[in-house]
Amino acid sequence: MEIVKxxxxxxxxxxxxxxxxISLALVTVALVVMVKPGLRLGVEFRGGWECELGFGxxxxxxxxxxxxxxxxxxxxxxxxxxxxxxxxxxxxxxxxTGEAEEARVVSSLQAALSGQGDIQxxxxxxxxxxVGSDLLERAIIALLVALAGIMIYLSMRFSWRFAPGAxxxxxxxxxxxxxxxxxxxxxxxxxxxxxxxxxxxxxxxxTVVVYDRIRENLxxxxxxxFATLINVSLNEILGRTILTSGALLVVAVSLLLFGGPVLRxxxxxxxxxxxxxxxxxxxxxxxxxxxxxxxxxxPKF
Length: 301
Hints:
The chain is an alpha+beta fold and 301 residues long. It has two domains: 196 residues, Multidrug efflux transporter AcrB transmembrane domain (Multidrug efflux transporter AcrB transmembrane fold, Up-down Bundle); 80 residues, Alpha-Beta Plaits (2-Layer Sandwich). The strands form two sheets. Strands 3-4-2-5 form a four-stranded antiparallel sheet. A two-stranded parallel sheet has the order 1-6. The radius of gyration is 24 Å and the shape is elongated.
């Protein structure tokens, strides 16, 4: 199946000034929203507890909140309340700060919400502040180690001139995806982190395919114009990129629509990441490699 006809010659490199501006704008907005209002860390990273309740019937959030506020229990003061799924099912997620035992939280909730009917505790998690801080630190380290490993791998497989463009493209993808998550008010949780790590793997694979084709064309052609060669390479693998990214995007969107609240944040982050990763593989990585080649040209192709 031919998505892109042979001989297609889109001028990707010629539009690099425009795409530089778009990428810079996206990254800037992402950094701004990550600073203010800032990342909403999940209970895994900030410490605290969260409890998922089911009423089996519609319950108004204001009645729910009033019941907790009027309980007089310090543990339930200032908690966050989030409705999950269909309002008719009456599923809610309650988050509180500080360490707490499950039995104490559940008994306090049952006493405070006795007027709302029978409730079912479906899930309870509690993480200490120190443990949450350690997890956040390890999450950051995991991302940095992944980026460093990819730079070393690309330097060994291709040339050091190829590695910076790919790593900057990866950083671009991670920042854009994280910025969208923050802008939508989604909590930064372990599933979101897993989606970012999956994004790094996907985007790296996409970029390696581009670099492989560039290297093949470098061997076939005798000292070609590097900008033209990158354009030719991008056009040659464009159909493959569309099919691969499209297939993964279909899976991610399917999880988003039908996977339920447990997979929603993972699927949304991955969906945004696939779009950003495809864009950066085509418009960012190759263009940055060209800029490096212009400033530090190789002795020969």
